[in-house]
Amino acid sequence: MHFISTRNGDLSVLFSQAVRECAPSDGGVFVPYSIEDMRRWIYYIDESTSFTSIAGSLTSAIMNDEYSPIICEKIATDAFPFEPNVVQLDENLFQMQLYTGFTGQQRDFGISYLCSYLENTLELEGQKAVILDFTFGGLGSILAKCLRGKKNIKAVLVFQKGTVQGFSEEDFVWNGGNIYPVEMDAPIEQIRNVIFEIYENKDFVKNHKITIANTTNVCRMFGQLMYFPYSFARIKNRVSDDIYYALNAGNYGTIMGALYSWRFALPLSGIFTPCTNELSVDSFGKPVIYDGSFDVHGRKRMNPLNPANLERLEYFFKENELMMRNFVYPTMVTEKEIVDSAKVLYKKYGVVADKDTASAYACVLGNNNVESDGEAAVVLLSNNHPSYSNEFCKTVYGRELELPANVKETLQVVDLKRPIVSSKEEIMKIVEKM
C-alpha cells in the first residue's frame, strides 16, 4: 500500500516510510493512496474467525508490498494478546468494549500494533528506533507495557512536571527497561513546541530513527481499524439490515478507522457521533468540517505532536461532499441528554457507561435515521473502562466505580526523583544516548 500527503498527491511512499517519517515534509499528513477491495474476505469471516486472524489479513493488505504474509501474521499475533468484547444488548443494539487491553483504554490497540510492527520489522533490518513524544501520563503507561521485552525500540517521553504516572521501576532505561521519562517545568504548549522543533530537525530524526506514537503515525491509526471488521464478523449472522456505528469523535482517529474499514469493503451504513467545534452541522442540519473552508496549502505545518486526523477526514470527503452528508451524522447533544442516555443504558441493559459512551448513545436515541429504519443495527463503541470517568459515574449513578487493577496501576503517580530538563538540546542528548 502506498501513501501520499494530504497536501501533495504526487508524493508517494510505502507504509514503512510513512511510519518512520511520521509526517511528510510538506507539512501535511500521510493518507492511503489506494486501499485493496477485500469484499470477498469480508463476507467470508464470521464468529469463528479470531481477532488476530482478522488483524493478520488486514496487515497483509496494508504491507504486502514490503513484507511476507508470515511476517504480517506475526506482527498481528504479537500485537494483540487481547481482543474487543462484542456484547448484544437487544435485537439491534450491540456494544463493542475496547477497554480489554493492558490499561483499559482503546488506544492500547493502536499503540500495541505500532510497537509490534516496529519490533518485528526493525529486527529484520537489524536496526533500532526511538519513540519521542509528549504525554499527560496515559500514553506512557501503555508504552511501558507494550515495550516490555522489546529489543529494538525505546521511548523518550516528555511530561509536564508532576504528571508522570503508570510506570514500574523495571520500565525505566536506567533499570534495564525501555522507557526514559523526563519532566519539564513549563506550559503544555511550550513543551509541545520544544519537541516539534526536534522533529523539524529532519537529519536528527532520520539518523536516530525517531518516530511518534500518536495517531499522526499511520501505523498507530491503522491499528484502530482492526476492530470494525471484527465486530462485523461477530454480528453479521444476527442482523438483517444496515449496520451503523456510534462513537465519540475524540481526536477523529476512530472515525478514520471506521472509514478506512469501509474502504476495505466493510458494510457500514453510517457513523453517529456528537458534534465538536470542528465537526458539526450547518443551519440545515448537514455535516460540516469548519476547517475545511481553509485551503490546506495556506495553513501552518502540521505539528506531529497533535493528532492530524481532522485533515485526514477533510481529505477523505473533499471530492465527495454528498457522501459525507449521507455517511457521517454529527448530532448536537446536551449534558442532560448525555446523563439521561447513561441512565437508559443502565436501566434497560445493565450497562455502566462512561461519558463518551453515553454521548454516543445519545446520538443514537436522537437520530431520525435509526428511528425510520427499525431493522437497522447499531454498534455502540465503549473506548475506555468507565472507571476512568468516575466523576461522571458519580453524577449518574451516585457512586464511583472501583478501579480495576490495571486502571489503578495506570493512574498511579510516580516520583521520578531525577533532574528536570529545560531545553530541546537536553532532550536530544538523551535520545542520542539511547
What percent of residues adopt helix (DSSP H or I)? 40-55%
Extract low-pLDDT stretches. Answer: none
Radius of gyration: 21 Å
N-to-C span = 31 Å
- Residues in β-strands, percent: 15-25%
The number of helical runs is 19
Q: What is the 3D form?
A: globular
**Major β-sheet profile:** 6 strands, mixed
Count of strand segments: 15
Q: Strand pairing plus helix content: what structural class? A: alpha/beta
Instruction: Summarize model confidence as the mean pLDDT.
Output: 89
Largest sheet strand order: 4-5-15-10-11-14
Description:
With 434 residues, the protein is of the alpha/beta class. It has 19 helices and 15 strands. Strands 4-5-15-10-11-14 form a six-stranded mixed β-sheet. A four-stranded parallel β-sheet has the order 8-7-6-9, sandwiched between helices. Strands 2-1-3 form a three-stranded antiparallel β-sheet. Strand 1 (2-5) and strand 2 (8-14) form a beta hairpin. The chain is globular, with a radius of gyration of 21 Å. The model has no long low-confidence stretch (mean pLDDT 89).
